Amino acid sequence: MKQILDTVWQRRGTSWIWDEETRNHVCVADEVWSLRQFLQSVGRWPDELPSNANNTLVVAGLDGILDLLTPQDAESWLGDMVKEAILSFQSYYEGEAALVFWLPSGHGRIKIHSATDAVGWHCAAPHSESMLDFGRILWGEAREYPQEILLREGGKPAGLFHLRIT
Length: 166
What we know:
- By secondary structure, this protein is an alpha/beta fold.
- It has helices spanning 20-24, 35-40, 62-68, 71-92, 106-109, 134-139; strands spanning 3-4, 13-17, 33-34, 56-60, 98-102, 110-113, 118-122, 131-133, 147-149, 159-162.
- It has a seven-stranded mixed beta sheet with strand order 1-9-10-2-5-4-3.
- The longest helix is centred in the middle third of the chain and has 22 residues, at 71-92.
- It is globular.
- The relative contact order is 0.24.
């Protein structure tokens, strides 16, 4: 998978981050929106975003909801509700803002298949044998586009960045 050192993910596209230092580059804790706030804002986006000089919206809670749903329900919900909200956000801000999902447990839960760059989400118990196919569900298998976010050369991946979901 390609890696990105550039800070474009802080101003554009959609990212899924799991590193607290990385999150702190774009917001302080009290600027983070709940997933509920995010989903309720579809079609009614604010003119000004709360973080990173009006460039970024950070959303927490996606991992918690995924843990509560069966894999089948999670797949449907991601493909219907979450993807539609991402598309609405992108459309409203015309690609000129960043949407960041804060996933504190993401480091151990997001799995990248190195041979294919497929990205999956490892489900929680009692469904820990299941994986959700993020690539297929959220970005339609556009595997050449997601990139691992690095804060420094040689550092560990701190998240994933996708410039535009279609």
